[in-house]
């Protein structure tokens, strides 16, 4: 059993060859962007802020931009494919179902970031270029990562529009809840094929200059039936964190195997959303119809013995089915949704951190057993 943590010295951060400002957006390709935007507005409490479609000149795609604090999701569907990008999105949804096609990263200099990435082995997808409107100029470029996922590099310091040129401000679809459900994207998890995890860890080390933050192998993430291995890479400031999972040999099919089968290859498995009040967020989202994984009462019987005091009483955690974990830096609270589409692929995590920069290692067994119960219902275990 191995878990390692690496903290990057400030001097190394100052010399970062690939500086980042944070996650810019998570971009989804979906079959019906209008309906997706409504779901994430009403169920996740997000606010529609920008739109691009036939009404403002986009004849090929319709895109809805939703935000909650610093978290930004973009949902795009194809109206009529007429370019390679439209054809890609159309095919992607047909083959993979609704899913993430782009983990866009905000950078201070998109041209320099692209040049560094390509020089160190990244496959270029879109050369750096400027897009402009009355709100200013954005510089964009894109590189490939695992599966059909891409990283668009976004330089937006000279822009004050609602999202990107070509988008116009939009009014909310529904009135968001009085209290924000979450504030930011905490991390984005990718699933890759057996034997490919270390290859993609090396990609992020070499191409983006990310460091290895944590790793979980062996018995860390295993139950009686299934197992996986995971390593976490992050930029020097820990603003962008990408756990990477691969399946491990076990008695039955793991959640990673199931994802790879139904998604049709590697891709983004789940998005973790940072919240300041996980109890209120879960109450709000559950009342709006979001389904969360269940946790047996027995999990909570001994929780207080090893997790200690938390902001939320154990009995409230039990009632809400929220998990807790503690490490040398503090503790965290977390809960996971069921998949948010018919295919058992993409789901979400809510996480409330109190010092801990971990990923809930103490909960892996309970989480995996909860996922296995859902897999068994689907006939996929």
Q: First CA to last CA: what distance?
A: 24 Å
Query: Regions with pLDDT < 50 over 5+ consecutive residues?
Result: 1-13
Number of strands: 17
Shape field:
globular
Helix content: 25-40%
Number of domains: 2
Give a structural overview:
There is one protein chain. This protein folds into two domains: 22-169, Roll (2,3-Dihydroxybiphenyl 1,2-Dioxygenase, domain 1); 184-378, 2,3-Dihydroxybiphenyl 1,2-Dioxygenase, domain 1 (Roll), CATH 3.10.180. 26% of the residues lie in helices and 32% in strands. The protein is built from eleven helices and 17 strands.
Give the SSE layout.
Layout: H1 10-14, E1 22-29, H2 33-42, E2 47-52, E3 61-68, E4 71-78, H3 84-96, E5 99-106, H4 110-119, E6 124-133, E7 136-144, E8 150-155, E9 168-169, E10 184-191, H5 197-207, E11 211-216, E12 227-234, E13 241-248, H6 255-263, E14 267-274, H7 278-287, H8 298-301, H9 303-307, H10 314-320, E15 323-327, E16 330-336, E17 347-354, H11 364-378
Parallel strand pairs: 1-4, 5-8, 10-13, 14-17
Antiparallel strand pairs: 1-5, 2-3, 2-9, 3-4, 6-7, 7-8, 10-14, 11-12, 12-13, 15-16, 16-17
